[in-house]
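Recall the central idea of this unit: under ordinary conditions, the amino acid sequence of a chain determines the structure it adopts. In this exercise we apply that idea directly, starting from the sequence alone.
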Amino acid sequence: MTIEWVCKHHSDLGIQQLYAILQLRAEVFVIEQQCFYQDIDGQDLEGETCHLMAWDEDRLVAYLRLLDPEMQGGDVVIGRVVTSPAARGQGLGHEMMEQALKQAQKRWPDMPIYLSAQAHLQGYYGRYGFVVAGEEYVEDGIAHIGMRRS
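Accordingly, the structure predicted from this sequence is:
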C-alpha cells in the first residue's frame, strides 16, 4: 500500500474527494458502528475547516477533519476520525494523528486541539499529548470523553 496524504481546505475539495469522504464516513459510522445521526452537519464547509485524507491510489483509506478554531470557541477540533475497514491494522491511525497535528500546527500555530474520543481510546490519544477534559458521556450508544492538547 502506497499512501498519499492530502490536506485540503474545504473550498479546494473536488466532487469525487467529497463523495469519497462522505461514503467512507457512512460506511464506518452509520453502517459498521450503527450510529444513526446527521453526519452531514454543516461543519464540513465552514470557515477554514480542512480535510485530511489518506489515498491508496484512487481509494480513500483514512480521513479526519480539522475544524476552524474560530468557529469552535478557540480550539482546533479534530473530528470524524475514520480508517477504512480494508486498511486497518497497518498503522494508518498513528500516521494520521501525526499528520493531523502537523497540519493543525501549520495552519493554526500554537492553538489548543480538542477531540471527542471514544472512551476506550484515551490511551491511544494520550500518546499524542491529549489529556481528559471533562466527564465521560454517551453519544450514539458509545462512551466518549473530551480530550485536549495544549
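The chain has one domain: 3-149.
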